[in-house]
Amino acid sequence: MKLKVISALCLLLAVLIYSCQNDNDITFKRYYTTGKVIYTTQCENCHGADGQGLSALMPPLTDTAFLRKNKAALSCFVKYGLKDKILIVNKKAYDSDMPPTDLAPIEIAEVLTYTGNSFGNNQGLITSQQVEAELLKCK
Amino acid sequence: MKRLISAASALLVLASACKFNSADNNKLPVYGNRTPVTKTVNGKTATDTVYQTIPDFKTVNQYGDSISSKSLDGSIYVADFFFTTCPSICPVMHRNMLNVYQAYKNDKDVKIISYTIDPKHDSVKVLKKYADKLGIAGNTWWLLQGKKEEIYKLSESYLVRKPEEDAKQLFIHDGYFILVDKQKRIRGTYDGTVPEQVDHLIADIKTLKAEPDQK
User: Fold this and answer.
1) Average pLDDT value for chain A
2) I want to staple B190 with a disulfide (CB 3.0 to 4.6 A). Which of A88, A129, B123, B197 is the partner?
3) Chain B residues in contact with A54 (beta carbon < 8 A)
4) What is the value of ipTM here, to two decimals?
5) What is the pTM of this model?
6) Which CATH number fits domain A22-137: 3.40.50.970, 2.60.120.10, 1.10.760.10, 3.40.190.10?
């Protein structure tokens, strides 16, 4: 009897720990999935279904080092677009303008979580709070 | 036994129908309006079909050369309508059109022309820069600037949606690629935003080139 109770308690504990650990995982998956939908409607035409970009017109999203280095600025790029700026991506210069979007911080976080973890990138979850903080610092 | 024979003959009929169809598929259809024209030659009346053709147009390409429909005499060509600052479907169209370009850039009989529907912004200089960035060179793919009203009017001859401008000064147009033969008749239309349809176009150009009157 005692053994049964103990094992049941252990199982319960295991389930609890497991579900806690998975909380972040679930958030990540939720962000990633919604981000993919946003990417398809807002970004894919130019940046491509595989983030491959388009020749020298549209930069690819496959330069992990670039994404990491400009992590804080990415939210600003998505929200306010780019005008008369030159970006060096994959060692090539891109000077095309990027149109602004009217995405909310949570949507920006979702789409950045998607692009940051697709096309060979592996940068983990980008939260809505991070995006909000970065948007305050946009130049 | 009787049943078996009838089943076999039914199968045979079906099979021959298939073969007949595949033979017919080696010719592309001709699109557009057609008008019967009856003429009297040497006392004999003969009726001929006149197909819709692309009318003459006057434009300049990305090199600043004048391009009219005469410049396309003797060419099979693919046409589309775009503008360089288009944020929506144009990048998709031209990502797909690059595949057509790669397939036929060494074929002197095949050309691609893209008319800009925003000639005010898309000057020769802008078009050249776009071409360079897109990675196209030579005279296979021309980006054409003409008078806006003329290009909009011309789009009707290509059976595509006539471009419009909405309140935000964005241009609304569709993303069709139109295949035109050496007689300037429309032989196919393909949704340029769908890679599978563009693959179909690349195959159809090959079929078209094999037709006797396209040599």
Assistant:
1) 92
2) B197
3) 91, 94-95, 134
4) 0.77
5) 0.81
6) 1.10.760.10
